[in-house]
Design a protein that fits this description.
single chain, 267 residues, alpha/beta, TIM Barrel, eight-stranded parallel beta barrel, 10 strands, 15% strand
């Protein structure tokens, strides 16, 4: 079996993460801690709790990333969204640290059409400055939204300028999602260089094909080779980024194996 040039893993269920990792043959996983669509404090539903999972991951040589709940939007100008978002993000960071996670991935968020984009940028600055960040916090680009903080490169540049001025900025990294970038209308042949020119770093790739067309703004993941992204461009991102990649494609163990086989063939 051909070796991949970077570690490639998959999003898995926290309770069965090691079993799935063994079944697929991967050493990198991404999990949710708690409800990805809810506001409750993250809890880990595994036997023995966080300490047991941390020990098991270490013994198995598996690196874990935690995806923050989708509801988080620290850019929001709405106090009823922004304040709970900051609280939940902080709780997620602490929970991730308890299992020895390599990082927490969170979406860049957005403001509304009535807001000045600079307000969202300032709210991100305050969030970074006000959080304890015990593990790297990786901001992920998003597929759609005219007022998103991390969809277009100009918006990302404004966001990164504000974040870089905050205490704790050295713990902020970037997660590049290929489906999101394609759907946002970014050029995948240059996106790694374009993003690094702004952020100085890419820490993780979410490796997904796209059911939505280029520039559609549609966040519709597809299995590798079954979507609309050119195969050369998709694997080109993996090569150019040179960092761990996580599959967030549809299906289960069989589909993960097929995605890995496709990647080995094309790389």
């Amino acid at each position: 079996m051909a070796e991949l040039p970077v570690p490639v893993g998959a999003h898995v269920d926290a309770a069965t993460s090691l079993d799935e990792a063994r079944a697929v043959g991967i050493h990198v996983v991404q999990i949710f801690i708690g409800d990805p669509q809810g506001w409750k404090k993250p809890t880990l539903d595994v036997e023995g709790g966080p300490a047991a999972l941390r020990e098991a991951l270490g013994e198995a040589g598996v690196t874990a990333y935690v995806h923050a709940p989708y509801v988080i939007n620290v850019a929001s100008t709405n106090n009823r969204i922004r304040i709970p978002s900051r609280k939940l993000l902080q709780q997620t960071l602490h929970a991730a640290a308890e299992i020895g996670a390599a990082g927490v991935i969170v979406h860049g968020g957005h403001v509304t059409a009535e807001d000045e984009p600079g307000q969202g940028v300032e709210n991100w600055h305050k969030a970074v400055a006000g959080c304890e960040i015990p593990v790297p916090l990786l901001i992920e680009n998003t597929a759609g939204g005219a007022h998103a903080m991390a969809r277009r490169l100009d918006a990302l540049a404004a966001l990164w300028t504000a974040i870089s001025a905050a205490e704790g900025a050295e713990q902020i990294g970037f997660c590049l999602d290929t489906c999101h970038a394609f759907a946002a209308g970014l050029d995948l042949t240059s996106v790694v260089d374009d993003v690094r020119a702004i952020t100085g770093r890419i820490d993780l790739v979410h490796l997904n094909d796209s059911r939505g067309a280029a520039g559609s703004g549609a966040d519709r993941h597809a299995n590798l080779g079954e979507g609309l992204i050119d195969a050369t461009e998709l694997v080109g991102v993996v090569r150019a980024a040179g960092v761990p990649a996580i599959l967030e494609t549809p299906g289960g163990i069989d589909e993960r194996r097929a995605d890995l086989a496709w990647l080995r063939e094309h790389l």
